[in-house]
Amino acid sequence: MRKKWTKEFHRTVKTQKGFIQIPILIAIIAGVSVLSGAGYFGIKQYQNYQIKKVEQEIILQDKEKEAQVLAEAQQKVIEETRQEIDKIKTQEQEKTKNLENELYAEKVKRIEAETKQKAEEDKARILEQQRVNETKNDLPTIISFWRPRIAKLQCAWMTTDGEVAFWQTGSGLLVSGNDMVITNQHVFIAEESSIKRGADFCLISFPDQKPVVVNYTEFRFSKTEDVGLLEIKEPSTYMKNLGTFTQGCKTFPPIGEKIVILGYPTIGSSDDITATDGIISGRDGFYYITSAKIEHGNSGGTAIYLKDNCILGIPTSSKVGEIESLGRILDFKAAIFSF
Fold it and tell me: Pfam family of this protein, just one (predicted)?
């Protein structure tokens, strides 16, 4: 069949000379070449299009992957940050809770300590009050009760050469937290040419105890009354062991009531206190007038109201009368509030 078709083709294309003309053949060949080139170019263009499309898809896929990786990384950072914040919140909450627990425990401990201290103070106050009540109207017992608190004062003024120019003596009472002695101001203040000058130091002695030295810088003065305080920086064990309760009289005793003056007068015992009793003869402002003898060294001691066994005041000066001298006692409350 193929051979028959070929023969027909050759017969058909023969010309008058027996062959196809050259120009027509060239035209046919050119047309075939053009068609072949166009087809090749089209195929090539299509292939390039497909390649670019694939490349774009690959690029798009890479961008999507990068975006996904970035989103996952961001989400991871956010999650880690959230976890860290939650961790910090938990730690802060625990710290706050622990701090609250500590503060609460400290508050409870402080309240317990304050309650215990108050209970001890109340107990000491009750015991002291019982002791006071037991000693009412019993003169020897009252004297024994107050004796440990009565101080003997020896104040010295020095010369420029370091020698003692003179001594001045008096009495005092241990008050406050057992670290203060109250006395008359004139015991440690002397007047030279109308100029007041404090002692350079004072020796404070209690019954059966060694003296304690108090310097001028530890003196305190009242601006209105003849009363002063000597501060003891380092109280002895003896002082610390004394009860802290010091009872001043709550009311003004009437005239005629009995009192006792305790101190170290120069004419009395030099080693122990001397007691002189008397009555309240009258009042003059913040001062009581008494018949009890108040000698030089007794000044600054203590006047006790026998009926209530309380501190009436601070014995101060004596006023000489026609028959006997009348002593003056500064009311204890007035003395305390004058500082």
Answer: Trypsin_2
Average pLDDT for 49-53: 78
For residues 105-142, one letter each, b for 16 or more C-beta atoms within 10 angstroms of the residue's C-beta and e for the rest, the string is eeeeeeeeeeeeeeeeeeeeeeebeeebeebeeeeeeb
CA torsion 7-10-12-14 (nearest 10°) is -140
* Best CA proximity match to 314, nearest among 254, 245, 263, 279: 263
Domain boundaries, the chain: 71-135, 145-336
Q: Which tens digit of pLDDT belongs to each residue from 2-42?
A: 455 445 545 544 444 444 556 666 666 655 555 555 566 66
Judge whether 155 and 215 are in contact, CB under 8 Å: no
Q: Residues 138-154: what's their mean pLDDT? A: 91
Cβ–Cβ under 8 Å, residues 326 and 289: yes
* Token pair 């309380």 in the structure block, residue: 310
As a whole number of angstroms, the distance between CA 149 and CA 178 comes to: 9
Asked if residues 309 and 260 have their Cβ atoms less than 8 Å apart, the reply is no
Q: Which of 160-164, 274-278, 295-299 has the lowest mean pLDDT?
A: 295-299
Single-letter amino acid, residue 104: Y
Report residue 315's pLDDT band, with 50, 70 and 90 as the boundaries.
Answer: very high
Kindly tell me if the per-residue pLDDT of 217 is higher than 50.
yes
3-state secondary structure of 279: strand
147 burial level (CB within 10 Å; 0-12, 13-18, 19+): middle
User: Inter-axis angle of helices 139-146 and 22-135, to 10 degrees?
Assistant: 150
∠ CA 63-65-67, nearest 5°, is 65
CA separation for the pair 230, 247 (Å, rounded): 20
Backbone angles phi, psi at 42, to 5 degrees: -65, -45
Give the pairing of strands 310-320 and 180-183.
unpaired
User: How far is 263 from 275, CA to CA, in rounded Å?
Assistant: 7
CATH 3.40.50.970 corresponds to the domain 145-336: no
Query: What is the β-pairing status of strands 189-192 and 195-198?
Result: antiparallel
Distance CA 45, CA 336 (A): 118
